[in-house]
Amino acid sequence: MARLGVIGGSGIYDIPGLDITDTVKLTTPYGEPSDLYRIGKSADTEVVFLPRHGSMHHIQPNKINYRANLWGFRELGVKKILSAGASGGISSTMEPGGIVVLDQIIEHCWIVVVEIVRWLVEPAQSGLRAPLGHGLELEG
Q: pTM value?
């Protein structure tokens, strides 16, 4: 069974309904990830969850060790990652509480490096966007 990685952003420190079976602390060639990886199962999917800002929300966006976080997911056998977060509006037509399924990388910290982009492997072609968008009204 392929593992799905989930990165929680601001305000997302756990996943309701995820039955945690293990926690893993990793050290990577890039240093420490943001927090412990929480491994569990939701329905028929094995999930590896990591809160991007740490479970106490103590890591500022420009201080997140993105390389270590992604390396850790890779070490744990994750092939696809969903990243959830809160942010300002992308479009004036979006209402609060709206859901956006991105098909491009939007990066405002200006620290993402080429190695990370290569690890993401064309998110629009990965086959992940279509299942997420099933039943949603997609724009663009």
A: 0.68
